[in-house]
Design brief:
The protein is 64% helix and 0% strand. It has 527 residues and is an all-alpha fold. Among the domains are: 68-203, Leucine-rich Repeat Variant, CATH 1.25.10; 230-321, Leucine-rich Repeat Variant, CATH 1.25.10.10. Residues 507-517 have a biased composition (Polar residues).
Length: 527
């Protein structure tokens, strides 16, 4: 019969936990939730420039001119630079419409090769700007449209425009490259291999307008995004010092995109997490977790949450930086998405050694955790259940008793009626471990009475009839092992087939829904 010190295989399969602390951390990668990202991530992948006002004063001269598509095609293919400019500007205006811009129409008209040519017209910066702007908006469309821009040879000329003496031209090139890199890892790497990063980093200075710096920070974040494959180590090492520098900028948008960049870079193995942690960003990230601006709080919390999926040492660095002074407060944040993310981070701290669990207790996290289990949205309650599960399987008997004294049993028992079979199984396992802990200190009878008084026995017995065989089997074994008359009188029950199936369930409970993810368990979108 399993005891609190359950078989090693069972512990190794229980989320990320094993008796050995390093094994628990390894399980975070191999047997973890993957943060399920919505098709549209929290941070914008691509951005279209729909500004009505051109930075070029000469546009006022052509403001009333509206060209048809055939006229645009003729003008773009003309030999006169002024006609090329007017036609390109007209195309750009069409592409800048707020609703239903004719992106595909312009591509199908075969204009991209000429627009790419215009990027190289250093004697005509106005033409370069309009061409870069048009290509920016085309690249903001579908992957097919972005590919048309890339296949048209736009990346290298755009990278060269990062050295343009004309700031507006330079900024538009940054924007275009950000859209291309945001399409996916293939085009991101094409931008990186075109030596864009050193040129971008040269632009990071206090002398440029904040709007320009926002575009640079956003483009850098897109160069950090995606993990199949990850950006090269060389590229990451190039960008990290600049990201550390930008992390201290006062502008909220710059901070937001910088934090998103760091969250992408920490969404991986321990080595990648270590690259970021070694720059010394943790104290500042923790500080930003207290930001009143949601667009800064969200990615800073995500980055720190990713870091605590790393090694015990990396998690300890996060604890030393003060995350436990912030996370309990975030469990009461008005946005449930933040509560969920905070609970997820806490669950990964609880997956560490007993010293980390003790720090969780000391920081006062148990009362707000219980409150979330009682009253939180279900997506938050699920993460809180995972936190308790890790706490229960890794904590000492004394730590488990403190968990019970905090009032965790009642909301857990109430959640036994939910339709989510995975969470019901986890809660049953939590109750099993708590009963085993109580038995170790001769308090099992009192624990059983407490569970019975909360309606737990009735709910566990009802689950014996559950349509899910694992739930029914687990409920039956808990009842017979801890609440049956035979158990109370000390009668030893003979081994049965369901005992072996129960042990098999304990070993495999957490395998079925685990999707390998760099970093941790599936987090859902923070939207």
């Amino acid at each position: 019969m399993p005891t609190l010190e359950a078989p090693g295989e069972r512990l190794r399969k229980f989320k990320y936990r094993g008796k050995d602390a390093s094994m628990r951390r390894q399980q975070r990668i191999a047997v973890s939730l993957e943060l399920r990202k919505a098709k549209k991530d929290e941070q914008s992948l691509k951005r279209r420039n729909i500004t009505d006002v051109s930075p070029d004063p000469s546009e006022q001269q052509t403001k009333g001119v509206s060209l048809t598509l055939p006229e645009i095609i003729n003008g773009v293919n003309a030999s006169d630079p002024e006609l090329c400019f007017q036609a390109t500007q007209a195309a750009r205006k069409m592409l800048s419409r707020e609703k239903n811009p004719p992106l595909k129409l312009i591509v199908d008209a075969g204009l991209i090769p000429r627009l790419v040519e215009f990027l190289k017209s250093s004697l005509h910066p106005r033409l370069q700007l309009e061409a870069a702007w048009a290509l920016t908006n085309i690249a903001s469309g579908t992957s097919e449209l972005t590919r048309a821009v890339v296949d048209g040879g736009a990346i290298q000329p755009l990278v060269e425009l990062l050295s343009s003496p004309h700031m507006t031209v330079c900024e538009q090139a940054v924007w275009a490259l950000g859209n291309i890199a945001g399409d996916g890892p293939k085009f991101r790497d094409d931008v990186i291999f075109s030596d864009a990063i050193p040129h971008l980093l040269t632009l990071v200075s206090s002398s440029i307008p904040v709007t320009f710096l926002r575009n640079i920070a956003w483009t850098l974040s897109n160069l950090c995004r995606n993990k199949n494959p990850y950006p090269s180590d060389h590229a990451v090492k190039q960008m990290l010092p600049a990201l550390f520098h930008l992390l201290w900028h006062p502008d909220g948008e710059v901070l937001s995109d910088t934090c998103w960049a760091l969250s992408y870079l920490t969404d991986g193995c321990d080595t990648r997490i270590g690259q970021v942690v070694d720059t010394g960003v943790l104290p500042r990230l923790v500080e930003l977790m207290s930001s009143s601006e949601l667009n800064v709080l969200t990615p800073s919390l995500r980055a720190v949450g990713n870091i605590v999926t790393g090694t015990d040492h990396q998690t300890q660095l996060a604890l030393d930086a003060g995350i436990l002074a912030v996370l309990p407060q975030l469990l009461t944040h008005p946005r449930s998405s933040i509560q969920k993310e905070a609970a997820w981070a806490l669950s990964n701290v609880a997956a560490g050694p007993r010293q980390h669990i003790q720090q969780l207790i000391a920081c006062g996290v148990l009362p707000p955790l219980v409150a979330v289990l009682e009253n939180g949205e279900f997506k938050v309650q699920k993460e809180a259940v995972w936190t308790v599960a890790n706490f229960t399987t890794g904590g000492t008997v004394d730590q488990l008793i403190q968990l019970v004294q905090a009032g965790v049993l009642e909301p857990l028992i109430n959640l036994l009626t939910i339709p989510d079979t995975k969470i019901v199984l986890i809660i049953l396992d939590i109750l099993f471990f708590i009963l085993q802990a109580a038995e170790k200190i001769s308090q099992k009878e009192n624990m059983c009475l407490l569970i019975e008084g909360l309606g737990g026995i009735d709910r566990i017995e009802a689950l014996q009839l559950h349509e899910n065989r694992q739930i029914a089997l687990t409920a039956l074994n808990i009842t017979e092992r801890h609440f049956s008359e035979e158990e109370e009188t000390g009668t030893t029950l003979p081994a049965r087939d369901q005992d072996h199936e129960f042990l098999k369930h304990l070993t495999n409970t957490y395998q079925s829904s685990t999707t390998p993810k760099p970093g941790t368990r599936p987090k859902e979108s923070l939207l």
